[in-house]
Structure formats: structure tokens, C-alpha cells
Amino acid sequence: MALQLKGIHYQYVEEDTKNKSELLLRSNPVYKKIPVLIHNGVPICESRIIIEYIDETWPAPPPLLPNHPYDRYLVRFWADFFDQKFMEAVGLVCSGWSSETKTFMSRKGHDEYAQMAMTLESGIAEMERRGLIYLEGKTCVGYMDVCFAPYVALFGPVEKLFGLRLLGSDKCPNLHKWIQSLLTNEVVKLTLPDGNKVIKHMKRFLGID
After folding, report:
1. Regarding beta strands 97-98 and 103-104, do their DSSP bridges make them parallel or antiparallel, or are they unpaired?
2. What is the predicted pLDDT for the residue at 86?
3. What is the H or E stretch that residue 98 is in?
4. Which of 201, 137, 127, 149 shows the shortest CA–CA distance to 2?
5. How many other C-beta atoms can be found within 10 angstroms of the C-beta atom of residue 149?
6. Which DSSP category does 86 fall into?
7. What is the DSSP string of 21-77?
8. How many percent of the chain have pLDDT more than 70?
9. pLDDT tens string 2-43
10. Assessment of whether the complete model's pTM goes beyond 0.85
């Protein structure tokens, strides 16, 4: 998504995470995971580091990170919260699913998710006030949008597989508005994975028939 926004030509190579290639293992021997950006023969690893690398290597508009130090801190903080806390809570919810009973075995994951969603909601409100997230017709796609948008492709499949509504407009209006704005952006739509493909991958990953 960052490369598309910058207008950089690239080759996209899919990876089977169950059968990792020699290229991946050689390019990321520490974490052995995707994504990896290979630029001039040198691998750059970890999603958010890759985004910052792209922004610094190709500084032409649009800038992904904001100029003000506090604003840069803010988007980095909430991107980290999203990765470390919010998605961890989503994973906790999904891990409680029983394929036999077709129900969730515990409410713990739901409660943790609800708390993390409301916390993220407050962060989104602050970033919206400072113009740090994409809103159609008002701001450009930036760092936080690029970090968050790929996960939007998970919400529909999770709802379809588990009957679980992750982000509703009633309790998380800022998040809901942000997601709807992102889905109007042509670059975001172009780079999101196909929903059916995501469902197939999730079923394989979670062992669901």
C-alpha cells in the first residue's frame, strides 16, 4: 500500500507461511516471517519498519509520517497498540471458537476485545482531531492508515466465520467512520486481499472445516 501511494514499481511475491521458501528464510533469518521488502538486494523486515523505510527512501509526496514530532509519536503509539493489544484481543476471541459446537467457549476474549476496541476508539478520536487519519475529502492516506487498513480485510471474514461483529457504528463510531472512509480510497481497495481468500486462509490457520 505504501509503495502504491508513492508510485513505486515493485514485484509482489506471495509466500506460503506453512512451507516457507528459502528466499524468506534467507531474507529474514531472525523472525522468519513476512512481509519482507527487498530493495537493491537488501532485505528490510517488519511491517511498520518497512513503511518508515519507504517513506524515508522515497520522500516525494505523499508523506506517510507527519512532520510534527508529537504527531509522529501519536501514530506510532497507536499503530503499536493496534498490533500488540487490539489484534491480540481479536486472536483471543477467535481462539475460543469451538468447531464442534459452533460457539465460543469463553466470554473472556469478548470482554478483552470490547475493552481494547473502546481504548482504540479514544485514540482514533484524537488522531482525527489532529488530521492524522484518512477521511474522504479531508486528509490523505498516511502512516496509521497504512498500518491499519490491511486488517480491514479480516473483519468481514471474522464476522462471516464466527458471527462476531467486530466494529459496530453504535459503540465505535470513530472507528466505523474511519473504516468506511478507507474503503472509499482507490489505493486501499486495490491492495486489500480478496475476502474469500482470507476466509480460506483463516480456516486453514485455525483448523476449521
Report:
1. antiparallel
2. 87
3. strand 97-98
4. 149
5. 22
6. I
7. -HHHHHH-TTT--S-EEEETTEEEESHHHHHHHHHHHS-SSSPSS-SSHHHHHHHHH
8. 88
9. 999 999 999 999 998 889 999 999 999 999 999 999 999 999
10. yes
